[in-house]
Each structure stands twice: as C-alpha cells, then as structure tokens.
Fold:
Amino acid sequence: MELKPLWENPRLKGSSETYTALLAIPVGIKQKKNVDIVVRKFLSENCSVILFHYDGKVDGWRDLVWSDKAIHIVALNQTKWWFAKRFLHPDVVDIYDYIFLWDEDLGVENFHAGRYLRIMISEGLEISQPALDPRRSEIHHRITVRNRTGKVHRRVYGFHGSLNCSDDSRGPPCTGWVEGMAPVFSRAAWRCVWHLIQNDLIHGWGLDMKLGYCAQGDRTKKIGVIDSEFIIHQGIPSLGGSSADKPSRRGSHRGSRHSARRGSRRGSSERAAVKAQNDRSIDSRSHVRRQSTVELEMFRQRWDRAVREDEDWIDPFKHMRRNRAAT
Ligand SMILES: *[C@@H]1O[C@H](CO)[C@@H](O)[C@H](O)[C@H]1NC(C)=O
Ligand SMILES: *[C@@H]1O[C@H](CO)[C@@H](O)[C@H](O)[C@H]1NC(C)=O
Ligand SMILES: *[C@@H]1O[C@H](CO)[C@@H](O)[C@H](O)[C@H]1NC(C)=O
Ligand SMILES: *[C@@H]1O[C@H](CO)[C@@H](O)[C@H](O)[C@H]1NC(C)=O
Structure:
C-alpha cells in the first residue's frame, strides 16, 4: 500500500524503521473531521493509510493535505469486512508488521500509534485493541473498558451473563478476544483472520469470538486490550461503524433527543420530513441487524460443518467450556 515513485529505489522491507504499519478505515464524508484527526496521527508515525469510501464521496477529501498520500478505494454501501476481504489480501499487505482495521468514529486524543505498537511488541500481543474510555464511549463488552491504572489487560472478572469470569476462564467473553471496532493484527494473525472472513458474509458478526484461533498460540496471552493508549468509541451508526450492526443504546437516544430539539424550531411539514428521514434510517438499521443475525447463523453453520468435515482438525480450545458472549 506504499505509493512507489516511478524511478528511484523503493523503500525496502526491514530498512531504518523498527516496524511498519497500515491503517485501513472505511469512511463516509460525514466523518471527515474525525477521520482527518485519526489519519494525521498515523501518518506522523509513517504508517500507510488506505481509505474505503462507502459513500462514494471521494472528491470531498481532496482538500486535505495528506489526501494524495493515502490510497482511496470507492465502493458504494459496502462494509468494512467486504473491503478488507477484497483489498487486504495477506500477500498484498505482507510488508506490514501490523494492520489497524478501524471504524471511522473513534476518538484518538489519548492515543499514539508508535507508543501503542511498542507496547504490543513488548507484551507479545498478536491481536489487540486500544481500551475504550468508559465515560465517553458506547460500550458493548466489558473487556474493552479501560483500566485506568494498568498498561494492558487480557481478561475481565465477574459476571458476564450467567458466566462468572475469573483467572480460570480460558476463552471469550472473559478472555482471548477483542471487539471488531478497533482491532490491530500482527502479520501472522491477519493472514489467519483474512481466511476466517467470509466473502459473502459482510457484517462480520461472530468473527470476534473466533479471533482466538488466530492468536498464534495461547489466546489468553496473545490477545489483549491496551489501557495506556486508549480511545473513545462514539458509536455513530454508519456503514463504517460496527455500531450499525449493534443495538445502539446511547446512539439512538442521542438521535431522538437531537431531532426533537430540531423539530421544535421548525414547521410541521419540515418536522414530518425529519421524522420520515429518521424512520428510514431506523428502518434500514433494523434491516441490517436482521441480516447480521442471519449471517451469524450461517457463519456458525459453516464453522461446524468445517469442523465435521476436516478429519485432521484438532480444536486447540476443545477442552474448554463453550462460551458465547451475551451481546
Ligand atoms: C518517518 O520517516 C521520516 C523519513 O524517513 C523519518 O525522518 C522519521 O524519523 C520517521 N518517523 C518515525 C516516527 O518513524
Ligand atoms: C446506498 O445506500 C443509500 C442509503 O441507504 C441509498 O439511498 C442508495 O441507493 C444506495 N446506493 C447503492 C448503489 O446501493
Ligand atoms: C487494573 O490494573 C491494575 C494494575 O495492573 C491491577 O492491579 C488491577 O487489578 C486492574 N483492575 C481491574 C479492574 O482489572
Ligand atoms: C466467581 O468466581 C470467583 C473466582 O473463582 C469466586 O471467588 C466467586 O465466589 C464466584 N462467584 C460466584 C457467585 O460464584
């Protein structure tokens, strides 16, 4: 994903830098301001950047000073996993030590890509995510919440649905996984995860619970949440965000308050138009959720069939209790 000069020698793998990394992020023009901040943070650490424009409005980004340094891919109404499967083939991104496959609605004021990667390397993590600031984030899973006094955590404690998570827990949702909104993968982990992504199942549900199989060893050690570099998950429902797929508690409250406030200052026909627009977006979100649920079931069925049909397969986590996240 590095843009090469037509002449002069390209930068070679393993040259002066200590690591190479790629930021890949699905974007819509509505999130331009936030994405600008995120991309600058990564470019200043010499990371490569690839933007997946799901709304087709790529020209709206040309005024940004870094626009020509990024790679832009346009495909209308496609999801992060659709793009990732098609444009981040492991051979193509093999030059990168680490891949950030992020949503567009993440706040990065307390995040530094260089420091983050140094922690990932020193802790021996193959898959990670930055912790979420619980005061300003939409939280779906407790394992993502930042521990204010720690550097990294790899498990949560206490009850998760009916499951009592403790130091004895060996798998999700207590340990050994991260959520889909801000994952970071090592080269080897990405090669594995890319194969897990199903070409036709574009919402990515269920994938996070299987990340442990890509951990390159013990998932309770090689997957973790980095607390000292943390982010805000704004939870804006869009194609770029995993929140489009999730019941968006905070987001939907915020939306309805917002429209009520706007409505009071407008005439009734405008109010009706705003309401119709909101209804449509709520309606399309519920369609997406329904589709995601269908895809999750197909993903599970394919997994089970693959396990049945592959006689050589030995499940490394088989002796562990079968846990499922209470989403
Ligand atoms: C980024 O690359 C430039 C040019 O090669 C170099 O001077 C700079 O030190 C690098 N910065 C980091 C953080 O690696
Ligand atoms: C993309 O989605 C928008 C909003 O749902 C819709 O209006 C538009 O027709 C879609 N475009 C394509 C090419 O599917
Ligand atoms: C937070 O991290 C500190 C230091 O690593 C640790 O002692 C503490 O138990 C952690 N708290 C939680 C809730 O995990
Ligand atoms: C949950 O697990 C912890 C650690 O194993 C244990 O101390 C605690 O009693 C358990 N809680 C319940 C209600 O079983």
